[in-house]
Amino acid sequence: MQAETRTYRVNGIDMCVRVAGAGPEVLLVHGFPDTHVIWRKQVPALVAAGYRVIAPDNRGTGESAISPNVADYRLDNLVADLLGLLDALDVAKVRLVAHDWGAIIGWQLAARHPERVDRYVALSVGHPRAYASDPVQWLHAWYVFLIQLPWLPERLLAAGDWRGMARLAGWVDEIPAWRASLARPGRLTAALAYYRANLHLLWRGDVPPVRVPVLGVWSSGDRFLTERQMVASARFVRAPWRYVRIDGANHWMQLTAVEAVNALLLGYLRPMEVR
Predict the structure, then answer these.
(1) CATH code at position 26
(2) Alpha-carbon gap, residue 210 to 208, rounded angstroms
(3) Residue ranges making up the domain that contains 226
(4) Model confidence over 195-252: pLDDT tens digits?
């Protein structure tokens, strides 16, 4: 598999992007506390199936530039980053796959700019209005309120050689990757800025209905998201909707249910599928 890492100047920042393969474009958007590396089990499968895969490090993450202000991480700006990247790559329309915070950005991108999205696969996080309407989901998001405090969340997550992050995640396998990325100056604070800039989304999901086909995927071992917020997303999709539950995988289903996730992606993204 031939792949290259490039840096593009988009929306006022330098964005690092991993590009591999040739064919219809698939945009992979990661969440917290990840980088594009979280897709390492999906990229080879997609390239082998004949896709050109675009996997950026989101604003402030991985090797992409850190923005100085919390307001720089507001949802509209994060969507503008992806639009700018598609423009820089001369991609008119993309198959979109996104996880966690990436999925929140993805819902907004698909809703506000349907002309740029062929179809959308949302992993873990449902439509923001479905998320905001689920009181049980608010309880699962207790950590979001803790993150609003200054400096203390950074201390707690990095404490004990990142044992704090392991306790929050409930999973240790990816700690080396998270440590390598987030221990660098300013990186953890930049990652937490996603939550600090968009707290209102917990109770007010200001995202219109989506008018492109959507596949929503939720994993039964997810300790952060309820199944109900994903299932209820059907109410906010004005196009073909499909829901799939993966049993036994945790929140990071890309790594804990590789075969199931890859099979879903290859089945749903293939060009001739009619919906």
Answers:
(1) 3.40.50.1820
(2) 6
(3) 3-269
(4) 999 999 988 878 999 999 999 999 999 999 999 999 999 999 999 999 999 999 999 9
